[in-house]
Design goal:
The chain is built from four helices and four strands. The chain has about 100 residues and is of the alpha+beta class. It has one domain (about 1-95). The protein has a four-stranded antiparallel sheet with strand order 1-2-3-4. The longest helix is centred in the first third of the chain and has 12 residues, at about 5-20. The chain is globular and about 30 Å long. This is YneQ.
Length: about 100
């Protein structure tokens, strides 16, 4: 279940993904399969080769992309989320959620 994002944030992320940009969206998230993880960052891009190349630089495999639905993306959480968001200069998104 996702929560903690505003409709305009989601719409901006979707538009950026549709435009072939690497786009980041962080929100609260709960899933009993991942205890202790309270947020997820979706990193999306319509251009699958571009998204796979982006992920590869961080050790993410193309087969880990979530291709269900209209917005292809990687889901980042836990240690990977913190490491990658810091490397991308986007750690402020995580601080907004007081992890």
């Amino acid at each position: 279940m996702a929560f903690g994002i505003k409709r305009d944030e989601l719409q901006r992320w979707k538009a950026a993904v549709d435009n072939g940009e690497i786009a980041f969206l962080t929100h609260y998230w709960t899933d009993e399969r991942f205890p202790g993880c309270k947020t997820v960052t979706k990193v999306g891009c319509r251009d699958l080769d571009k998204l796979a190349g982006w992920g590869k630089q961080y050790g993410l495999k193309a087969e880990w992309m979530d291709l269900r639905g209209d917005y292809p993306h990687f889901d980042l959480f836990g240690e990977h989320q913190e490491r990658i968001m810091a490397a991308e200069g986007m750690a402020h998104q995580l601080k907004n959620f007081r992890r």
